[in-house]
Amino acid sequence: MAEKNKKKKIVTIVLIAVIAALVALIVVQRTVGFSSNKSAGYAAFGTRGASQAQAVNVQVEKAQSSVFAKRVNFNGELSRNESSKNISSDVGGTVVQVLVKRGDYVEVGTVVAQVDPSSPGSQYKVRDVVANVSGTVLSVDAYVGQKVNSGNTLVSVGNPSTLILKMSIPEKYLSSVNVGSKAYFTTAAWPGKEYSAVATYVGTSVSISSRTVEYEFAIQDSDSRLLEGMYVKADVVVYENDSAITVPTTALTTYLENDVLYVAVKNGDAYKAKRIYVTKGVSDASRTEILSGLQAGDLVIVAGSVIEGSLINIVNPEEVSR
Fold first, then answer.
1. Close Cβ partners of 259 (under 8 Å, ≥ 6 residues apart)
2. How many other C-beta atoms are found inside a 10 Å radius of the C-beta of residue 165?
3. What 3-state class would DSSP assign to 48?
């Protein structure tokens, strides 16, 4: 009996050992398989990461010299130049004839109107009112039957081309808006038509109340639609550089409190981003002048998030060969 029990124990021990060995084998196989899969997963992820790093899409703009002008908007009014002359009667009386109309051209000595200085009980010879200057009749202020006094204006004569643009400009622009400065303006009646003008006069005093200076601009475009008294919106050029290198202001950023740009540079057959330090100049509403650090021909990254050394993909390659 004892011998039989001993054999059972031995068989049980052997079975337990076999089962343990089988369990150990299964665990080892699963562990190895998981590690292999995990390594393969990491390798795939790394490949995808590298691919993503190479696919940073950017847009570039080739730097080049061009005319850059900063404009500031002001309100203005069209007015007649002071060279226009008023023709008046040298006697009081009644206007009996008006011999010209607006737009007529008159010479010195042309009779423009007649005034009868007679009064009840006194008869006088009708007096001619003559032009004392040659030019175009700009306005007729008299009518037949009108009672006038000596010195009253009957007709204004001048040159239509002497219509000028007058503006009051803040005193801080005195150093940048001078005789010869350019302006471009539009009218409310024809907002799509832009006219040009050049500064011909700068006031000699500053208004105490508005802190502005009076400016006059000669209009460069001849257009009969422009009328005295018209309200206009004008852009005055306060800075101009004929050979400036500019970039979109949004392309500029800072690095360690310095102004920087990122440019695309060759990296074998591809491109990478390079940080360059620049000196800014004047800015307008959308662009900024670069005074140093950027050369004509450089490919400025104007869209796309990059850092120093980023591998990039230029999405507008036509700009590279422009």
1. 252, 253, 277, 278, 279, 280
2. 24
3. helix
Flag whether pLDDT at 295 surpasses 80: yes
The alpha carbon of 18 is separated from its chain's Cα centroid by a whole number of angstroms, namely 86
Q: Judge whether 77 and 163 are in contact, CB under 8 Å.
A: no
CATH 1.10.3720.10 for domain 57-67+243-319, yes or no, is no
For the stretch 231-247, pLDDT in tens is 999 999 999 999 999 99
> Cα torsion for 28, 31, 32, 35, to the nearest 10°?
-170
0.85 exceeded by the pTM? no
Phi, psi of 213 (to 5 degrees): -120, 140
Instruction: Kindly indicate the confidence band of residue 174, based on its pLDDT and cuts at 50, 70 and 90.
Output: very high
Span 119-154, pLDDT tens digits = 888 888 999 999 988 888 988 999 999 999 999 999
Could you tell me which of 103, 125, 124, 127 has the C-alpha nearest to residue 113? 127
Q: What is the C-alpha separation between 207 and 163, in angstroms, rounded?
A: 24
CATH code for the domain defined by 85-158: 2.40.50.100
Inter-residue long-range contacts of 169-174, CB under 8 Å, 24+ positions, other chains counted: 169/74, 169/212, 169/213, 169/215, 169/236, 170/211, 170/212, 170/213, 171/206, 171/211, 171/212, 171/213, 173/72, 173/236, 173/238, 174/202, 174/213
Tell me which residue of 285, 293, 284 sits closest to 263, measured CA to CA: 293
Residue 55 has pLDDT above 80, yes or no: no
The arrangement of secondary structure in 71-80+161-241, i.e. its CATH architecture, is Beta Barrel (2.40)
Q: In the chain, where are the structural domains located?
A: 1-53, 57-67+243-319, 71-80+161-241, 85-158
Task: Find out whether 20 and 13 touch, Cβ atoms under 8 Å.
Answer: no
CA torsion angle for 208, 210, 215, 217 (degrees, to 10)? -170
